[in-house]
Amino acid sequence: MTLCAVMLALGLFGSRSPVDRTNVVNVVLWGGQSNANGLNTNTYAATSTYTGAQVGVWLMDGRNNLGAGDCPGLSWAKPNQRTSGELALASRLLQYFGTNNSAIVASAVPGTSLAVDWVAGSPTRNAFYSAANSIRYQFPNAQFVGMVWVQGEADASDLTRANAYSVNVTSFFAHVRSTLGVTNLPVAVYRLHTNETDTYAATVRTAQNNATNLWRVGIINVDDQTMIDGQHLDRAGQDALGLRAFDILTNFWSISIP
After folding, report:
1. In this structure, is the dihedral angle defined by the CA atoms of residues 99, 132, 136 and 64, taken in order, positive or negative?
2. What is the DSSP letter of 227?
3. What is the pLDDT of the chain when averaged over all its residues?
4. In a domain, 2, yes or no
5. Given this model, what pLDDT does residue 48 score?
6. Is residue 258 part of a domain?
7. Given pLDDT bands bounded at 50, 70 and 90, which one contains residue 189?
8. What CATH code is carried by the domain that includes residue 108?
9. Whole-number Å distance between alpha carbons of 151 and 169
10. Which residue of 85, 110, 160, 194 sits 20 to 30 Å from the alpha carbon of 44, by its own alpha carbon?
């Protein structure tokens, strides 16, 4: 079977997990919309500091309906093609868990809102779970240790969606934990950039800040990074997104790893 939605981390050195995790594949979920998906230009991604990492990333692209083997809707993206902050995150997972002991399951669809496209039972959410289940099929010893959620722009363009974001994100995180059977799954949430131009961005940012009141949820703050337009981070910003997501997850892992 084709390996679906998986980025295996290979080769570097660095700080390590405080406990022995070599008997499992430690999996981080990576989901959301366009800032989680990256931009589909070789020039954009090739400037990443982390393109030299020996990794491959499976990415969901619902709008282009790309397919690969047993995974309809998934496309294989090498480091110099479509990536977001996954390469930077992978470099840190490699250091933390060691060679061949970590993976990223990526399922990101540009332009999707939490209020409409990611609701329970939707094709987008079902694809997210399907991608997660695929790694359990491939690696029976896979364990989900965290999630990175990079989304909110589509909800910030509509007042009703923006006002519902707090309720929707709370419900979504609870559903992910329940569905995957990992009640203590830590979540790193990208907070919309302070220069985000969608009309109701401030409302969504407040809801994202309030999400830290939930158990084991932390905010990824990239307000010091550059945007290429009113919605999207530049390459360095997306690298920072991955690195800071790792920092948040390790804060929770220092207490306990699922």
Report:
1. negative
2. B
3. 78
4. no
5. 58
6. no
7. very high
8. 3.40.50.1110
9. 10
10. 194
Count Cβ atoms below 10 Å from residue 209 Cβ, excluding itself. 14
From 149, 61, 75, 155, select the one nearest 109 (Cα to Cα): 61
Q: Are 60 and 74 in contact (CB under 8 A)?
A: yes
Provide the residue range defining the domain that includes 179.
7-14+23-253
50 located within any domain: yes
How confident is the model over 38-55, as a mean pLDDT?
51
Rg of the chain over all Cα atoms, to the nearest angstrom: 17
For the record, the structure tokens of 85 come out as: 């902050």
Ranges 42-51, 194-203, 224-233: which has the least confidence: 42-51
Structurally, how many domains does the chain consist of?
1
pTM: 0.84
Long-range contacts (CB closer than 8 Å, 24 or more residues apart) made by 68-73: 68/2, 68/4, 69/1, 69/2, 69/4, 70/1, 70/2, 70/4, 71/2, 71/4, 71/5, 71/131, 71/134, 73/127
Distance CA 82, CA 108 (A): 11
Nearby residues of 74 by Cβ (< 8 Å), 6 or more positions away: 4, 5, 58, 59, 60, 61, 66, 67, 68, 131
CB-CB contact of 128 with 104 (8 Å): no
* Alpha-carbon distances of 171 from 119, 139, 154, 174, 182, rounded to whole Å: 9, 28, 18, 5, 15
* 222 belongs to a structural domain: yes
